[in-house]
Amino acid sequence: MHEMVKGSNVALAALSENAGSLIVSLSWVSPTGDGDADVSVLLLDENGKVRSDGDFYFYNNPVAADGSVQLLGKTPTESGDEDRISFDLTAVPSGIDRIVVAASRYEGAGFGELEDLKVKLADGGGESLLGFAIDDAGTVSAIIFGELYRRGEEWKFRAVGQGYDTGLAGLAADFGVDIDDDAGTDETLNGTDSSAQAITTAAAPAVERDPQITPGSVPAPRLPDDDVEPKKAARPRTAKKKVTVPKVARKSLADNESWKPARLFPVSVLKSDRDRETRATSVLLSVMAQVPEFGRRLTAAFGAPAGRMETFTEVSLPHGDTPRRPDGVIRVERAGKLWTALVETKTNGNDLRPEQVQAYVDIAARRGYEAVITLSNDVALEGSPLVDVKIDGRRKHKVALWHLSWAEVTYQAQMLIRHEGVGDKAHAWLLQELLYYLRHENSGCHGFQNMGSAWVPVRNGIDDETLCQGNPRALEVVESWERLIRQICLSLGGELGQKVLPVQRAKRGADPSTRRIHLADQLCLGGRLQAELRMDGAPGILSICADLRTGKLRTSIEIPAPEQGYPLTWAKRLIRRLAEAPADLHIETLVEGETGGPRGTLERLRPEPAGMLPKNNDTHIAGFRLSLFKSMGSSRGNAESGFIRSVDDAVHRFYTSVVVHLDSPTPRRASTKEGAGTG
Known about the structure:
By secondary structure, the chain is of the alpha+beta class. The chain has helices at residues 167-174, 273-290, 292-300, 354-367, 406-420, 425-439, 455-463, 472-496, 512-526, 567-577, 602-605, 643-657; strands at residues 2-4, 9-11, 21-29, 38-44, 56-57, 69-76, 81-88, 98-104, 115-123, 128-134, 142-151, 154-164, 308-313, 328-334, 337-345, 371-376, 400-405, 500-502, 528-535, 542-547, 552-560, 586-591, 599-601, 621-631, 677-678. Strands 2, 4, 5, 8, 11, 12 and 25 form a seven-stranded antiparallel sheet that branches. A seven-stranded antiparallel sheet has the order 18-19-20-21-24-22-23. The protein has a six-stranded mixed sheet with strand order 1-10-9-3-7-6, with no helix packed on it.
């Protein structure tokens, strides 16, 4: 991979023959586990300005209609977060001269609080092309990581690393975007007061930067020939859109509840694993082809271009003496060129067969196909592929191997319906039918549901204290636990329409396998599996602890004490906020310099909130820890008493009965004296 320094540039064609389709990844590490940022893209003309506000892509406008830009969202990595953007450079309009790739923070946060800021580029085959690390971010709230720009007929990349103190609104305005944010909007982008968010180009402060990167002056708008002033288009809002919950279903016309609605994809006839695999593949691929937003969302991350998609099932392909029949084929046509991926599907917890996947990779390489996509209930871990295949280095054509879990498919469908929306009612109905099918108990598409063969021996070893460090079965359990947590993030995020990501508190540069070995040793010593989840809008990190010694699950969240007011007022207000929370909720007061403060159940503290306060009035209260406990299942699989089901239920119960009642973090007002930007 080509490593770049600030200000350097490189021609993409010199790095890859498949650079027409790119995945740009922006990544960072939060030492505290709760830092976050959002990516944005601006398409600029030869004057260094957007042609219109539609050339500004961010969380409220994530996809270009022509498929040239698509924000794919955040993906957890072993050490932090990675936000990915798909570019189809062949679809970029000819009037675009430069593409700026940036990221911004909000609520008064700066990039100096994050570590390992980096941008990476990969080509359509998934091969890493280049990387650029930013070491001097400082306190800025927005950064231009880099830019793609044309030189004649080829595209080049420049490592920029330029910061802005004015956040996304200031950055966008400086490139000609007209920002409009009402004072009544609940959420703001950079922690600035909503009344100060109406920022236009004329009011944008000047920013010092490299002359090569400085945008030109804003051309005066021209009136049409008939001198009639056109109606102004709605300006982009940098305040995040709220989740749109689907409308409540209309009252049924059925005579009684035993009548079942007719379904497009019936599941009652499925009798065997082969039936389930065949039906699931056909259902998914047909919806992908008919709902462009959905198909594009699933394939963009695999390097597919934006174009006309067709999908096929049970295609016979020659392979030695015995033809092979992959479960499906995806083809995307763009400007007369074809992108092809073979699909291998497994349902009902069945494992992928390495020899079968290897055969498909070999076929794809011989026929010039771009990718092989595996789809199963299992969840892939970074740095730990589900299937090991051998790549023939003598072949010039490279094939990318990708994996999807059924939980990821469900998540993407939910996000489109409940959060981002689709423009066609028929498309929305198709996605709803797909969701119904995937969730049906007979479909076999329920995601990761088995902790593996090592689960029972490890639990027994913890019970009788015979489990020793270095035990390979403990490592298997840690990997299964990580898969479960990633799936819970997808499940909860899809239901809420919010980003839910696992927090990885690893040392900088930590190898994934080394980190898992360390966690396995901790499991052998303490008998606990632990994880943390970060959710948009939540006041803190949601922690999960499965104590295998006691058989108890603990879900908890720590909320900081307010900066102003009196402790008794804080206690009373917290109790009022938790009026509908479970009576057995444990509340512990966190005291600075001490291991623990007053604690009790919500039932006991409701009539006497003062019981939450330390007896010593001089003691400084740092915050409060809220916890729920429940017994965890013992079996490894998906029975009613299963461990996976109990963890999933515990997390959902804690969020819906406790976290939703808490206040979101209060944005800090940005100073009006802040500078415009830094170079």
